[in-house]
Amino acid sequence: MSRIYLDHNATTAVDPAVLDAMLPYFSAEFGNASSIHTFGQRARAAVETAREQVAALINARPQEIVFASGGTESDNHAIFGVVASGSASSHIITTTIEHEAVLNACQALEKQGIAVTYLPVDREGLVNPDDLRRALRPETILITVMHANNELGTVQPLTEIGKVAAEADVYFHTDAVQSAGKISVDVKALQLDLLSISGHKFYAPKGIGALFIKGGTQLRQLLYGGHHQRGFRPGTENVAGIVGLGKAAELARLSFENDTARIARLRDTLEQGILARVPDSRVNSAKAPRTPNTSNILFPGLEGEALVIALDLKGLACSTGAACSSGAVEPSHVLTAIGLPATEARSSIRFSLGRHTTETEIATALEIVPAAVAQLRRLSPTYHKEPVGHS
Amino acid sequence: MSTQLQLDPLPTAVAEETTPGLVAVAMSGGVDSSTVAAVLLQQNRPIVGLTMQLWNQRRLPELQGDGPAQHRCCSLDDVYDAKRVAQHLNFPHYVVNFEEQFEARVVRPFVEQYLSGRTPIACTNCNTDVKFEPLLRMARQIGAERLATGHYARIRKNETTGRFELLRARDDSKDQSYFLWGLTQEQLSRSDFPLGELTKEEVRNVARQVNLPVAEKPESMELCFVPNGNYVQFIHAYSRAEGIAVNNQEGDIVTEDGAVIGRHTGVHNYTVGQRKGLGFAAGKPVYVLSIDTENNRIMVGEDDALRTSTFEIENVNWISIAEPATPIRGQAKIRHKHDPAPATIEALPGNRARITFETPQRAITPGQAAVFYNNDVVLAGGWIK
Questions:
Q1: What DSSP letter does each residue of B255-309 carry, written as one string?
Q2: Would the pTM count as exceeding 0.80?
Q3: A interface mutation test: which of B4, B6, B14 has the most A CBs within 10 A?
């Protein structure tokens, strides 16, 4: 029996088929994709195939895909790139529940004099498009709203937001790191100008991602170097990583419908099972549209951090909040933003399922979790549902 | 060619509520607590390492530059060291966030006490109110039965009285029992101090034998949350950030008979027993005898006047014995670097006690702790009023 991994929003295992596709490009096919000779041409072909595969996943054109190191770089490129092409007194609209890659980029820009509006979200973690309309200013140059939230799985109404952005003629970026490969992502239907994805969230390796840049978008490059990727992203292409990203995108596109339905069913089994077996437990943002794999559950009367450790010691991996650089848990800005008091935010943990999650694993999780919660609550100073004596 | 997805096997204890005998080791990243892990593993005890994240150096931006926090105690480097030790010895390790508790129970009281003219000991609060309270509880919540720390002290159960006793370390020069007087019977019953029987050199030798990556790491002597050991600067920065009023008002420095011999720069800049910056009276050096915050005065006198015999302690914790009905003879220690001196302790109502030295002792300082011993055994401790 193996350890159970229910933390796919943190990262996923490289799919065996992805690994197989990548392996030749480390040694046998080692060419530099920019080289003229045959070695280079073969690498170039692999890179361009991958570009087509990634483009197909999000309904973009291949020339609109720029490979990067991951979600953080793509988010930074989109935000700093748009601002650098605009005037010095620009305005950005984002939300309070973005990933740090977006939030901290916006905060850095604020220090440089750029105005930023952080839209609130409701109890279900959703942005209200009317709030967005009201936040628009003549100098607004960018709306950046994440597609699916990493902690809650809630999916933002990007269709409406895209309409508002198009009507106002403002660039529209989304961080689709948590949605790509999990739900349908269509840059045309959503009227997106910019979109970030990260390979390791959908079975490609860490260190590879992509930014979709709609043709005609005015975007300054972040890095300066050679002419790779039409100057948008200089640096010798990470061929093996790019091939992995392409293969993962293809797998996601082809197995999408099956995976989605199966994972959603397992997630619902886990969720319903926990609610039935653990008194006072509650699903955060349960009423919102969510990615099929994510469940964020509140267990009043315990520290989520302690529960995650207790579960790991029993062989079940899940997560809480956002880990800071030391690995310690910090209070989640997302859970605070949906209106949870600090104690409840600290009592919530996230389960995120994946392509390799099995029914047996969910059944085992449903044995482990209620027992661990009971053990923590028995020693909790704040949870006294039943009379406790000193033993 | 296809590559199979293969994960680690589940731990054998998966079905059980707790791993029998699991011990949580409080790991700071230093050589002492790292060696605790090594010693327990040598005894074949199952362990899990816990490192507390206590203080965020970004909390007081004025004490640092723009970039990420540099190397300091309580910093990421120590967390990484603890993780490296756990990887080296191959046991599970987690970083746990106690920043909120640490600030509320250690940092803020430290600053407030200091500003009110007392000389606080942060380490005692950290032990009593963080390590052996929320950390011990978390250790038990995650399935550990006990908590082991790198303290140099000993615990033994007295089968006659049924009480858990706290004893000085075998290595007198490293003894830390002075910082542990606040522990309750329940806390002692669940704690292990595996270094209590070892000398520092023996600890380093164990660390070297098992090639701990921190075997040669220098010891940290400073307060872990104060960068560069400059705690006056820290107190000012923290007070500003938190809106705590600091009385910077100058005032009189007076002798015992009321003569004004100078001006002070704010009472919180002085400590009982201090000599520096006070000047002279009648040609002799003077020392701070007491700090009168109410009247904003510093009372000074000659060295002789600094020596007193009798004082009271509050929040008294009786450890190795129940509260006695009659006075008991033993030895009292009034600061970390003080040699215990013969004295008598008498319990008073309201969790207080009176300690009387046989010979007057220098600079009995409010805010410090007094710990009362019967030779190696800690009988009681309390805060000096």
A1: ETTS-EEEEES-GGG--TT--TT--EETTEE-EEEEEETTTTEEEEE-GGGGEEE
A2: yes
A3: B14
